[in-house]
Amino acid sequence: MDTTSNNFVNDDSQQEIQEFQELIETLPKEKGWITDYIYKYQGFWHLRKILLEVMACQRRFQAHDTDVILVTQPKSGTTWLKSLAFAIMHRGRYTELSQHPLRTHNPHDLVPFIEILDGFKGGRRPEELGPFPLEVAHDMFCRGVSIYGPFWEHILGYWKVSLERPEKVLFMKFEEMKEDVKYQVKRLARHLGCPFSNEEESEGVVENIIKLCSFKNLKNLEVNQSGKTWIIDNKHFFRKGEVGDWMNHLTPQMAEQVDRITEEKLHSHGLIF
């Protein structure tokens, strides 16, 4: 699978790093709920480490027409989407599912990435993004002060370009994938330029990929029970894979506030969750 990693020039010149560090010191910052500080740069909030990568990407990264970039918010189906994309694009190479690389490798190992570009492809309700110190995090989130946030502006940017250039940007929603995964997988394959043939469909190739990449299957594999990717235990990439878990964490008042802001920010643009 073509990715951005091969196009990124990793030149850690001390002069350039120093330039970026000095610029970061001039930016607005706020205490993060799980980090020391996040910094506001060009309208969005980032960890210092990620921001250094953003600046380097802006200066050095050159995309190829054949590159595929998956953009997701953390805990919004990233691992699932990576596994599906890999399996779809390499299905001609790995026809024997019992020997498929996804059985022995975490999807993040198979689809390399530049960290900042592993953002958000598609939408998921902000309530679904995972556990954190609730009251503080909820207040900051609603103010737009969150990693890669403001959430609504981030999502809206991708939504708008997906309408303007649908041949280049595919916008996917987690709930829609859960509701009709076969339809969404076929939609993803068409967008990636490798649609399933009638013969493949009749032979059950689509269903086999869905089963291979299912949350239950990936989570229960040995590599994802005990392995590591970078410094992260693979098991942490698999939370619940469900829609609606926010109800177990947010109060009705918190959920109402998020829904109200979501409606104000997104509904007028035709983006509805």
From TrEMBL:
<dbReference type="Pfam" id="PF00685">
    <property type="entry name" value="Sulfotransfer_1"/>
</dbReference>
<comment type="similarity">
    <text>Belongs to the sulfotransferase 1 family.</text>
</comment>
<feature type="domain" description="Sulfotransferase">
    <location>
        <begin position="65"/>
        <end position="117"/>
    </location>
</feature>
<keyword id="KW-0808">Transferase</keyword>
<dbReference type="InterPro" id="IPR000863">
    <property type="entry name" value="Sulfotransferase_dom"/>
</dbReference>
<protein>
    <recommendedName>
        <fullName>Sulfotransferase</fullName>
        <ecNumber>2.8.2.-</ecNumber>
    </recommendedName>
</protein>
<dbReference type="InterPro" id="IPR027417">
    <property type="entry name" value="P-loop_NTPase"/>
</dbReference>
<feature type="domain" description="Sulfotransferase">
    <location>
        <begin position="135"/>
        <end position="268"/>
    </location>
</feature>
<dbReference type="GO" id="GO:0008146">
    <property type="term" value="F:sulfotransferase activity"/>
</dbReference>
